[in-house]
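so i finally got all the pieces together for this one. its two components total, 224 residues if u count the protein bits. some of the lines might not be protein, just check the labels. i wanna see the whole assembly predicted at once instead of chain by chain like last time, that was a mess tbh
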Amino acid sequence: DTAVSQTPKYLVTQMGNDKSIKCEQNLGHDTMYWYKQDSKKFLKIMFSYNNKELIINETVPNRFSPKSPDKAHLNLHINSLELGDSAVYFCASSPAGTGANVLTFGAGSRLTVL
Amino acid sequence: GQSLEQPSEVTAVEGAIVQINCTYQTSGFYGLSWYQQHDGGAPTFLSYNALDGLEETGRFSSFLSRSDSYGYLLLQELQMKDSASYFCAVGGGDLSKLSFGAGTTVTVRA
């Protein structure tokens, strides 16, 4: 019954590798997001999609490529991983009407780049 | 752009009251939200103020003054389980992004 689920929960990989994180929401929300939380707990938006359409791309390196096959799914692919990519990546969604103010987050995917 | 300021940490005893202040600078303000995050967990939505005044939800209340670009989260009757990080966030309206403050770590002691 998980509202926003993302997999995997943990990724440990070497620099230069490519990895993907998947996200699915069963809330019927129209908008989905990727947020990055660094070691100081600062949460920063990366991308936002509304009904499969990219609406926010927040100066993220083009090694990061989101993809939304339908409005319930938003995946994140990262190429050529760097040490600085180590963080927790949260997927989130929001319903129409509240805008981005009321977000439901997934449990997070902790990425460690060695 | 948007910027938010909130205290980095607060410590209090069980049963006490804690107020976490948040000041913000933003263009196109549409609301102030609060989120709670326990260590190792996901942020969870607590409250949202679009208009001036106080919103109460159980032991937690949130206040907004748009003219002062200021809000606060009030935690009453503190319990050990309230030990967490609390984030204020400002939104720019529908389909817009939510920008978060750096978070306030609340530690509740017995």
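The two ends of chain A are 34 Å apart (CA to CA).
Chain A touches chain B at residues 31, 33, 40-45, 48, 50, 55-56, 58, 90, 96-108 (CB under 8 Å).
anyway lmk what u think
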